[in-house]
């Protein structure tokens, strides 16, 4: 019996462990090793070069452009998405047609980011065949190069991220608000709290857990931005690095330039940035739980 | 006396008026966002029937007539059907494998204490915090060494490996909440552990399995980064790769109608599935965030 139990445990764990190790853990770990070599993809010719790759990455303009872009994404996308989602979740409570809004808002979440990217190419087209420029033309404005103007390009990407993310967090916050006991709101109303007061003093604090989750998810997405930039931006992160991100550079360095060492070094740097972000958010947002 | 009676009446009326005003403002805000979501999709569907002249007209004008030739072009020359089939094959294999292996590991880790149990559990959970791009470069060489580049099998295995952390994490939490008595009763009746798992625990875990399955289907169907490096043969491309390529191609050839048709064809099935299962999909995806 005991023997059978151990065999059962082993039998159930072996395949998942092997696949997870081979296709996720080992490659991730190998990145750390390749980052210290001058490997160009041909076997047996890898030399250890110390921190050369890291130095080269950290000295490149491109990398710091990516850092600036990640910084902007991190500062703008989570707050904008959360604020809009929270506002809509607040408005929709008890409203006739709430189900309709839920269905429509959430839809971008089920579209793949690649398809969203292609969809927004036609939104942003720099001639009157583009949706935005087509709508602007009768007003006598434009055409605007939403993706080709270096001052606008990143903001156009930000808008798409917010566009596709709001629905998900709207549903998340709606569910969290539905979980607030009715007595709490009634008590607030009896004390003379208006809607605005109710929103900021009661609803927002009471769904703080959901907001914290949203913050972590959106922050991770901002640091991991790859597909949207790859599909939507001009020249893979252009114009002139205006929309570039570290993942886009990892891909380019590895599979266009065959600089596997530098690509891995950039990936390792990103890994530590993500870890730092995760640790910081945990620290900052960890407070006493509200009990009700 | 008169005052105390009329006061509530006045108050109710003003509250009701205030509520109606609030509802109108709410519908305006929500309606604008709904339009922002819908317009690009409507534009794409309309565009799939337009020729280039019409595309340069008003964005939301109706096409002169339904040009199904755009759709035929997308299907025949742009091979959108083949990309869809490829995605279907890989996602079916990937999700089936992920769910089976993920449920097995989660079940053992949740309900069978053994030395090293926690260690294995945290080993799986560790994967939740690794950004996908960290594994990207070495993954190419791992798959190459296994002779699995340009194969759907290779992509399926990668998807399973990458999807296991979340699947194990989510399902283990759920298996922990299931009552133990039924499994014990089954053991008394002489059922093996394996049989108990498949015939008793799996059916009991159905709600969690549905949530994670939906989560994984969407995640794997939408994956773009891994196919981009692992599948270079255009005959084996995933739908996401195909669409990105068609869009680039359309830019060179200025053939926009077929591009919009291809985009429409790839959005439609998702839209239909979403319309039918939207409640389950929303619960499934947001449940993952709350956990």
Describe this structure in words.
The complex is a heterodimer of chains A (292) and B (291). In chain A, 70% of the residues lie in helices and 0% in strands. With 292 residues, chain A is an all-alpha fold. The longest helix of chain A is centred in the N-terminal third of the chain and has 33 residues, at 2-34. Chain A is globular and about 75 Å long. Residues 288-292 of chain A have low confidence and may be disordered. Chain B folds into two domains: 2-70, no CATH class; 80-290, MetI-like fold (Orthogonal Bundle). Chain B contains 13 helices and no strands. Chain B has helices at residues 2-47, 52-55, 68-76, 80-111, 117-126, 132-145, 152-177, 181-188, 193-204, 206-221, 225-230, 239-253, 256-290. Chain B is globular. Chains A and B meet through helix 1, helix 3, helix 4, helix 5 and helix 6 of A and helix 1, helix 4, helix 5, helix 6 and helix 7 of B.
Order of helices and strands of chain A: HHHHHHHHHHHHH
Oligomeric state of the chains in view: heterodimer
Count of helical segments of chain A? 13
The rough form of chain A would be described as globular
Count of helices of chain B? 13
Biggest sheet architecture of chain B: none
């Amino acid at each position: 019996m005991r023997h059978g139990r151990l065999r059962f445990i082993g039998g159930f764990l072996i395949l998942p462990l092997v696949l997870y190790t081979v296709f996720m853990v080992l490659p991730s770990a190998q990145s750390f090793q390749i980052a210290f070599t001058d490997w160009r993809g041909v076997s047996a010719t890898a030399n250890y070069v110390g921190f050369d790759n890291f130095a080269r990455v950290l000295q490149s303009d491109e990398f710091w452009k990516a850092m600036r872009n990640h910084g902007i994404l991190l500062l703008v996308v989570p707050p904008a998405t959360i604020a809009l989602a929270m506002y809509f979740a607040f408005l929709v409570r008890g409203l006739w047609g709430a189900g309709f809004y839920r269905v429509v808002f959430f839809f971008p979440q089920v579209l793949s980011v690649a398809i969203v990217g292609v969809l927004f190419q036609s939104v942003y087209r720099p001639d009157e065949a583009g949706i935005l420029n087509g709508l602007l033309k009768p007003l006598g404005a434009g055409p605007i190069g939403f993706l080709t103007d270096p001052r606008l390009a990143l903001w156009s990407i930000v808008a798409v991220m917010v566009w596709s993310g709001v629905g998900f967090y709207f549903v998340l916050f709606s569910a969290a608000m539905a979980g607030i006991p009715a007595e709490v709101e009634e008590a607030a109303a009896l004390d003379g709290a208006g809607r605005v007061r109710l929103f900021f003093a009661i609803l927002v604090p009471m769904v703080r857990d959901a907001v914290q989750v949203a913050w972590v998810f959106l922050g991770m997405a901002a640091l991991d931005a790859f597909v949207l930039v790859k599909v939507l931006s001009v020249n893979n992160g252009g114009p002139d690095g205006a929309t570039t991100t570290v993942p886009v550079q990892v891909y380019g360095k590895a599979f266009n330039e065959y600089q596997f060492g530098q690509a891995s070094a950039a990936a390792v740097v990103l890994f530590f940035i993500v870890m730092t972000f995760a640790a910081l958010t945990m620290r900052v947002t960890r407070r006493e739980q509200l009990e009700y | 006396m008169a005052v105390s009676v009329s006061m509530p009446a006045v108050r109710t009326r003003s509250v009701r008026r205030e509520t109606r005003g609030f509802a109108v403002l709410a519908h305006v805000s929500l309606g604008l966002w709904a339009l922002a979501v819908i317009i690009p999709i409507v534009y794409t569907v309309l565009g799939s029937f337009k020729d280039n002249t019409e595309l340069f007209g008003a964005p939301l004008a109706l096409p002169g007539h339904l040009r199904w030739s755009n759709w035929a072009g997308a299907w025949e020359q742009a091979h959108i059907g083949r990309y869809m089939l490829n995605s279907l094959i890989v996602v079916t294999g990937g999700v089936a494998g992920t769910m089976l292996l993920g449920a097995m590991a989660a079940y053992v880790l949740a309900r069978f204490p053994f030395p090293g149990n926690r260690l294995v559990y945290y080993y799986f959970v560790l994967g939740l915090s690794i950004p996908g791009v960290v594994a990207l470069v070495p993954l190419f060489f791992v798959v190459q060494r296994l002779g699995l580049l340009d194969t759907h099998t290779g992509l399926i295995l990668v998807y399973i490996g990458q999807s296991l952390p979340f699947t194990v994490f989510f399902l283990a939490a759920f298996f922990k909440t299931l009552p133990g008595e039924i499994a014990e009763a089954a053991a008394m009746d002489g059922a093996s552990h394996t049989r108990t798992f498949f015939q008793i625990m799996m059916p009991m875990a159905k709600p969690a399995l549905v949530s994670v399955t939906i989560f994984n289907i969407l995640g794997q169907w939408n994956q773009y980064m891994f196919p981009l490096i692992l599948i270079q043969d255009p005959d084996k491309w995933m739908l996401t790769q195909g669409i990105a390529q068609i869009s680039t191609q359309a830019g060179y050839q200025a053939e926009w109608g077929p591009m919009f048709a291809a985009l429409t064809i790839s959005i439609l099935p998702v839209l239909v599935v979403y319309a039918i299962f939207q409640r389950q999909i929303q619960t499934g995806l947001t449940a993952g965030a709350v956990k």
